[in-house]
Amino acid sequence: MSDTLLLGPLVKTSSSRQTERRKRKDHFVRETVVKGAVGEQLQSGWEIDRPLKVKVKLKKHKSQDENFENRVWLLFDQLGFEELNQGRNFTVKFKRGKQIDGEKQIDVFAKDDETVIVVECKTSKELKKRSLQKDIEELANLKKMIANSIRQHYGKGFKPKIIWAFATANIIWSEADRNRAEGENINS
Which residue of 62, 78, 101, 161 pairs with 66 in a disulfide if CB–CB is 3.0 to 4.6 A? Predict the structure, then answer.
């Protein structure tokens, strides 16, 4: 499998970052449909944004977790990272043996000349305690394989500092989860 397929999709140019930034700043998902399909869309939570001649522009609020991921992504964009993940389907493919047989979806991926940041985002509608043990253990178990894929993707000359992190909203971390994350060198 080609190295270019190990990570993706990525935004690498200033114009693609600008397009992604605009999408992520918008708190709505937008869609254009033919006028005949508006009724069933309205029943599934969409609202009319504006009518056109033959079609109708619809919108609906993004989910809370998507809005939170977007806020974290926008933070890294503002910090000046040149490469960031595109959309919500960014994945890292990795090897467990000699073949690529694993894949991990990453919420936020940011890269500059020296650093790569891998962020898992977790949120809750209301403030509450929530165990992150399973999520911390999953990331901890995949760190080495993901790091190898990152290095392979960018080539032997790139030796980045890789920062692993959890970004949370409305989640109260237990002391055990904090200790577990710290022990695995995962920032919270």
Answer: 62
Summarize pLDDT for 125-183 with one digit per residue, the tens: 999 999 999 999 999 999 999 999 999 999 988 999 999 999 999 999 999 999 999 99
Distance between CA atoms of residues 68 and 51, nearest Å? 30
Contact 178, 130 (CB under 8 A): no
CA–CA separation, 79 and 81 (whole Å): 6
Number of C-beta neighbours around residue 174 at 10 A: 14
Q: DSSP for 70-82?
A: HHHHHHHHHTT-S
- Which residue would you say has higher pLDDT here, 30 or 4? 30
CA dihedral 93, 95, 101, 106 (to 10 degrees): -30
Task: Determine the Cα–Cα distance for residues 66 and 72; give it in Å rounded to an integer.
Answer: 10
Comparing C-alpha atoms, which of 22, 26, 37, 31 is closest to residue 57?
31
Write down the domain spans for the chain.
Answer: 3-22+63-187, 28-61
CATH of domain 3-22+63-187: 3.40.1350
Residues contacting 155, CB < 8 A, separation 6+: 3
